[in-house]
């Protein structure tokens, strides 16, 4: 895999070489924004605070001895600072966001309006359960539809994100093995799985055994059977992503599931790419035992939610009893939130609790609003359009860019490699940086690892034909520029961003985590002639 290990110094962007210089550093509406500590003063406050009454501090030796030295700004200064910073962010509201494997789709404002309704947006996890029956009903209904869409028997709603959901599913699998008196040590992870899969297995003490991909990027059931035979009686599970990170549907998934189940192991499916198959295929029908669902991908919630995400985990009949606390049970008078082991019944054997509270309410409201506004036919069409858009990009670029697995139908994302850049002097990273000058966020680079110089593009269903045509035309122009030997367009890119290319290696290895006030500089007048 070709990675950038040198990096380049960080410097302010220059809007065109030799562009008109300004005293402020601003270029029209592209404003140079300083840090709060460089704008404000630490010796004053922006508000009037009364002196507190006499009190006995309770912090003891932990009490602060030095001033806080927060920068004080007027209200207009603070507002301008954050508005200007917001304009430096690339977002799905700014343009096409082609990050493969991330599903950066449009977030309908209807969802945001629903998430802010009283009773959803203003509740607190510690208020009495009797005051939030509507919230419990909503979580229960969302869980119901997640089970319907996946064909599964139970759902754990508390995991906060994809990797947290992976951990939940694998902990349920471990609990099921322990309950059956088994203690297998091996988890099979195909090369085409998401990178967090082996990390999750290792965190739980499992030994990860890789499963090689076939030449077409898919998993060979014969290879899975060979690994199972090699570690007979010691395989706990397989963690497989479908569609996989090469943008390809695993056509032999049912046969793979059968081989895993025959070995008394479980099938964990990474659900990050669920947006490609919602309404088209149910993981439960494919033999999956556990799968997390990224609500912030498939069901349009802002990516990460500005804080905790949501990664509910659906479970098969075999794993349903081991769903973690808290969970919701259907009662005679409506949904019942079970928060402790004392509330469990005979068949429920929760492996424990993963998080203090049930989940991220805003994520739940947005996801259910998305489901209800689309309906079953709309969810199916979203998946079909996501696949259509990815293949539209594939067809528009396949004559100039290289497809590692040949010209075949992809699912919701299309994967290119760097073969088309051979002998141009332009790397995958250079190509991606030049996209920034064209106003696009780069696609996912160097992932999946099974492809050299990977470029993974996922347009999602959000994009119109016009936006895709412009994106394809832009990439075609960049490719032809690279082939013409116009390396300067790439080697110094981005030229037009607020900052030029970062020394990414140095930033990762030697991060500066604290702002230090620079030493004052004296300006000396020029010596008289």
UniProtKB/TrEMBL annotation:
Superkingdom field: Bacteria
Pfam families recorded: Aminotran_5, GcvP2_C
Region Disordered, annotated ranges: 1-23, 510-529
EC number: 1.4.4.2
Residue stretches making up the Aminotransferase class V domain: 185-304
Keyword annotations: Oxidoreductase, Pyridoxal phosphate
Molecular-function GO term, any one: glycine dehydrogenase (decarboxylating) activity
Reactions accelerated catalytically: N(6)-[(R)-lipoyl]-L-lysyl-[glycine-cleavage complex H protein] + glycine + H(+) = N(6)-[(R)-S(8)-aminomethyldihydrolipoyl]-L-lysyl-[glycine-cleavage complex H protein] + CO2
Residue intervals of the Glycine dehydrogenase C-terminal domain: 382-479
GO-annotated biological processes: glycine decarboxylation via glycine cleavage system
Assigned GO CC terms: cytosol; glycine cleavage complex
Known function: The glycine cleavage system catalyzes the degradation of glycine. The P protein binds the alpha-amino group of glycine through its pyridoxal phosphate cofactor; CO(2) is released and the remaining methylamine moiety is then transferred to the lipoamide cofactor of the H protein.
Name of the featured protein: glycine dehydrogenase (aminomethyl-transferring)
Organism: Stappia albiluteola
This protein's encoding gene: gcvPB
């Amino acid at each position: 895999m070709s990675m950038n290990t040198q990096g380049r110094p960080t410097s302010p962007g220059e809007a065109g070489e030799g562009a008109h210089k300004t005293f402020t550093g601003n270029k029209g509406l592209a404003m140079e924004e300083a840090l709060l500590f460089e704008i404000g003063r630490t010796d004053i406050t922006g508000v009037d605070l009364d002196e507190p009454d006499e009190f006995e501090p309770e912090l003891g030796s932990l009490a602060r001895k030095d001033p806080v030295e927060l920068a004080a700004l007027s209200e207009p200064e603070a507002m301008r600072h954050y508005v200007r910073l917001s304009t430096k962010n690339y977002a799905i509201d700014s343009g096409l966001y082609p990050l493969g494997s991330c599903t950066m789709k449009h977030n309908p404002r209807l969802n945001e309006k629903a998430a802010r309704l009283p009773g959803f947006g203003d509740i607190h996890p510690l208020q009495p359960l009797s005051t939030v029956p509507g919230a419990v009903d909503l979580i229960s209904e969302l869980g119901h539809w997640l089970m319907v869409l996946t064909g599964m028997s139970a759902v754990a709603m508390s995991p906060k994100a994809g990797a947290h959901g992976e951990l939940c599913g694998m902990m349920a699998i471990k609990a099921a093995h322990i309950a059956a008196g088994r203690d297998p040590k091996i988890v099979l992870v195909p090369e085409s799985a998401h990178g967090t899969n082996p990390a999750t297995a290792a965190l739980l003490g499992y030994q990860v055994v890789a499963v090689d991909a076939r030449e077409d990027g898919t998993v060979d059931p014969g290879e899975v059977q060979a690994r199972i035979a090699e570690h007979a009686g010691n395989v706990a599970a397989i963690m497989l992503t479908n569609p996989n990170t090469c943008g390809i549907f695993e056509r032999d998934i049912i046969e793979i599931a059968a081989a895993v189940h025959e070995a008394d192991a479980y099938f964990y499916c990474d659900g990050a790419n669920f947006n490609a198959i919602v309404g088209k295929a149910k993981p439960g029908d494919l033999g999956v035992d556990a799968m997390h669902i990224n609500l912030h991908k498939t069901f349009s919630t802002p990516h990460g939610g500005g804080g905790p995400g949501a990664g509910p985990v659906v479970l098969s009949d075999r794993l349903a009893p081991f769903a973690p606390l808290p969970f919701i049970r259907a009662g005679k008078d409506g949904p019942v939130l079970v928060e402790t082991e004392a509330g469990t019944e005979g068949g429920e054997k929760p492996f424990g609790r993963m998080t203090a509270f049930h989940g991220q309410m805003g994520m739940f409201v947005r996801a259910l609003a998305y489901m209800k506004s689309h309906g079953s036919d709309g969810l199916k069409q979203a998946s079909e359009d996501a696949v259509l858009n990815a293949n539209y990009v594939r067809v528009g670029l396949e004559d100039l860019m290289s497809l590692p697995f040949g010209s075949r139908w992809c699912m919701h994302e299309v994967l290119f490699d760097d073969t088309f850049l051979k002998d141009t002097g332009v790397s995958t990273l250079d190509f991606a940086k030049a996209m920034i000058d064209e106003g696009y966020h780069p696609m996912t680079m160097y992932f999946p690892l099974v492809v050299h110089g990977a470029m993974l593009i996922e347009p999602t269903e959000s994009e119109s034909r016009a936006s895709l045509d412009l994106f394809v035309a832009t990439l075609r122009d960049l490719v032809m520029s690279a082939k013409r030997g116009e390396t300067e367009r790439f080697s110094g890119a981005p030229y037009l961003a607020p900052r030029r290319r970062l020394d990414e290696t140095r930033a990762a290895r030697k991060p500066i985590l604290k702002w230090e006030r620079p030493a004052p500089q004296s300006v000396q007048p020029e010596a008289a002639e």
